[in-house]
TrEMBL record:
SMART domains membership: SFM (SM00500), WD40 (SM00320)
Name of the molecule in the record: Pre-mRNA processing factor 4 (PRP4)-like domain-containing protein
Gene3D superfamilies listed in its UniProt record: Pre-mRNA processing factor 4 domain, YVTN repeat-like/Quinoprotein amine dehydrogenase
Tagged with keyword NADP: no
Sample GO molecular function, one term: U6 snRNA binding
GO CC, alphabetical: U4/U6 x U5 tri-snRNP complex
Lineage: Eukaryota, Metazoa, Ecdysozoa, Nematoda, Chromadorea
The species this protein was found in: Steinernema hermaphroditum
GO biological process terms held by the UniProt record: mRNA splicing, via spliceosome
Domain Pre-mRNA processing factor 4 (PRP4)-like: 44-96
Length: 468
């Protein structure tokens, strides 16, 4: 009360709405930033994310950071930048990505310098493949019409029992100096050819793991060795029985009478990772690190086809059972199917997140399987032109896959030191083999279906078969 007895004057009320709240502004700024971050469309390719980080002068990778964390870090950084700068940066990157995709979709065709030899090759392959395709389709129709579901179930049960009884049979050092790279059974299932990084190519007998012959030709790493489709069956000892390739870009052809090459393809000075014989045995495909694969006539040693189409190294190639199509897989994460009779590109396989290391055809002629460094295998259908199934196959790189001759099961090897067997009906795991103590480079299934072979970084080859 005032001294004169009058009530005190009321103070004017403060208007808090006019006061600035720094905390509220910070919260709203963070809310807007997160909203912008959610709306940003970033590339999913790991390499492109790193390039964007480099452009904005940030580390492309932090210790212990995976691909998802790196992408989220980029998203958080871009959300704090000026919108015009972000739009300009992403627009230029999107234009480059679109151009790269257009280049990936484009198929290059090179006219052969060998004149009519390529045309004769295509005619030969057409004449060879069409009767085989007709016979395969007639057999498939007959099996479908018979509807022997009970017999199929019994055969599948027998196959499962056989796989469960498989155990390690023996072990052999195939390369005294460096890791083993590849192995393959002969058509009669009695021999194995191996390739090692010291350049050593050798043929071994199956039952006693005895070295029958050791070839001399590669001076650098040998990456692959394959048997001729008629080796030890129709081929005479002086005729072609095997072929091998190396990092020096040379392909050697071998017979059983000489440790020196029967013939050699001229060196391209480009690493050749894998080779594959055409089912006819007359042609050989080689996958090269110059983003191409090549088709060569083994009778004349003449290169007939130089096929581009991949943007990075082609690591593996395989022929369809009829011999009409070829499947290539590359380190650009894509696979491609080629019609050998016309030279056309038939199907584009897109879906792997990392490099493709191995490819293979199912004996039914329309299913394909690819194995990748993303630890998965994908099953593709040529008829529907899509991926039907993705197998979370291993805990590390899938190095090699092989489907048995009957198409009942598939074997895969991995850098996680395991071999796995998968049912081709539903692609379910049937068995895991642990025998090697280092990463496994390759696995193979014998044509008779009774043997498995694997080679690993520990320089050994191991044989697996059913227990007695």
């Amino acid at each position: 009360m005032s001294t004169n007895g009058a009530p005190p004057a009321k103070r004017p009320a403060l208007d808090y709405s006019t006061l600035e709240n720094p905390h509220e502004k910070a919260v709203m700024r963070e809310f807007d930033r997160r909203k912008r971050a959610r709306n940003l469309i970033l590339p999913t390719d790991v390499y492109q994310v790193k390039m964007l980080l480099r452009k904005i002068s940030h580390p492309i990778s932090l210790f212990g950071e995976d691909a998802y964390s790196r992408s989220e870090r980029l998203r958080a950084i871009l959300s704090t930048m000026d919108e015009n700068d972000v739009t300009s940066l992403l627009h230029s990157e999107m234009a480059k990505r679109q151009q790269s995709q257009e280049e990936d979709q484009e198929t290059w065709y090179h006219k052969a310098s060998c004149g009519d030899a390529l045309r004769e090759c295509r005619i030969y392959i057409a004449d060879y493949s069409l009767p085989r395709a007709r016979a395969r389709l007639d057999e498939a129709r007959a099996k479908k019409a018979s509807n022997l579901s009970h017999e199929k179930a019994l055969l599948q049960q027998e196959m499962h029992r056989k796989i469960q009884s498989i155990d390690i049979y023996g072990s052999q050092v195939i390369d005294p100096l460096r890791p083993g790279a590849f192995c393959e059974f002969s058509p009669d299932s009695k021999h194995i050819v191996t390739a090692g990084w010291s350049g050593m190519i050798a043929i071994w007998s199956v039952e006693d793991c005895h070295k029958e012959i050791q070839f001399q030709g590669h001076e650098t790493q040998a990456g692959c060795a394959r048997f001729h489709p008629n080796a030890y069956i129709d081929q005479k000892p002086h005729e072609l029985h095997a072929a091998s390739c190396g990092h020096d870009g040379i392909v050697h052809l071998w017979n059983l009478e000489n440790i020196q090459p029967l013939a050699s393809f001229p060196s391209t000075n480009i690493r050749i990772s894998r080779i594959a014989f055409h089912p006819s045995g007359r042609y050989l495909a080689s996958s090269c690190f110059d983003a191409s694969w090549r088709l060569t006539d083994v009778e004349t040693c003449q290169e007939l086809l130089f096929q581009e189409g991949h943007s990075k190294a082609v690591f593996d190639v395989d022929f369809q059972i009829d011999g009409s199509l070829a499947l290539s897989g590359g380190w650009d994460c894509y696979g491609r199917v080629w019609d050998l009779r016309t030279g056309r590109h038939v199907m584009f396989l897109e879906g792997h997140q990392k490099e493709i290391n191995t490819v293979g055809w199912h004996p039914n002629g329309y299913n394909m399987i690819t194995g990748s460094m993303d630890n998965t295998c994908k099953v593709w259908d040529l008829r529907m032109r899509r991926c039907n199934y993705t197998i979370a196959a291993h805990a590390s790189v899938v190095s090699r896959l092989k489907i048995d001759k009957t198409g009942e099961f598939m074997a895969t090897s991995s850098f996680d030191q395991t071999i796995k067997i998968w049912s081709t009906t539903g692609w379910q795991p049937l068995r895991t083999f642990n025998g090697h103590e280092t990463k496994i480079m390759a696995v193979d299934v014998s044509p008779c279906g009774n043997w498995l072979a694997s080679v690993a970084h520990d320089r050994t080859m191991k044989l697996w078969t059913k227990k007695e």
